[in-house]
Amino acid sequence: MSFELILVIITAITGVVVYVDRTVWRPKRERSVTTEKEPLLVEYSRSLFPVFLIVLVLRSFVIEPFRIPSGSMYPTLEIGDFIVVNKFAYGIKLPVTQTKILPIGEPKRGDVVVFKYPKDPDVDYIKRVVGLPGDEITYIGRTVFINGKPAKQTFLGEYQGEGSGKVMNGASLMQENLGDASHLILSDKEKTSQDMNTVVVPEGYYFMMGDNRDHSNDSRFWGFVPEKNLKGKAFGIWMNWDDGIQFDRIGKGIE
């Protein structure tokens, strides 16, 4: 059972208790000849319901925090980064069912997106949008081809990471352009390029890749991500804890 579903259930239960107390139980207590103490269940529900409701609304419709557990998005995101995700960037969805009730925007190439892993929806993944619906995507020799055109890559030097990122020291730090979007990626020449023949992204789906191209489990291996699985667009880092706090990453934007 997901945390989101648990939060919805707890919010609903405490809300029902507060409502029933206000409309049924409290009037009975007030009419009673003897003074009746407010039940403990009602007391706790009245105190906690507003808290649960605010958390539910924020997590479902505004922002949601996530922690980065792996290095698949180096150098953009590091292990231990705590990020915030814009939940309404791609439309407002109902919690649990993820039914879109208000379309607002669509993913663009280069967006860093949190989504439910298609093979196991209880697991959240974070990758970069590379292919949009209708795009032809090819990956050969560590180069992405979109509709037959290679994404421009510029070598910037050798990557020098900190903390757990040191494991990628010496990898090639590249700047990649996906149309108007520009971002950094890593290329590990000691690994075999995970080449992929041309695929066409179906309507309503997206092709995702990690920025740490040779160390990422992404759409090259398990396919496309349906629009309904998108949870939101990552836009900022509010904390990093990886063998201690890295203060230089706090408040950093995600590009």
UniProtKB/TrEMBL annotation:
Residues 42-238 form the Peptidase S26 domain. GO terms for biological process: signal peptide processing. It is an enzyme of class 3 (hydrolase). InterPro entries: LexA/Signal_pep-like_sf, Pept_S26A_signal_pept_1, Pept_S26A_signal_pept_1_CS, Pept_S26A_signal_pept_1_Lys-AS, Pept_S26A_signal_pept_1_Ser-AS, Peptidase_S26. This is Signal peptidase I. It comes from the Bacteria. It is found in: Membrane. The chain crosses the membrane at residues 6-25, 46-63. It comes from Hydrogenovibrio crunogenus (strain DSM 25203 / XCL-2). Its EC number is 3.4.21.89. It catalyses: Cleavage of hydrophobic, N-terminal signal or leader sequences from secreted and periplasmic proteins.
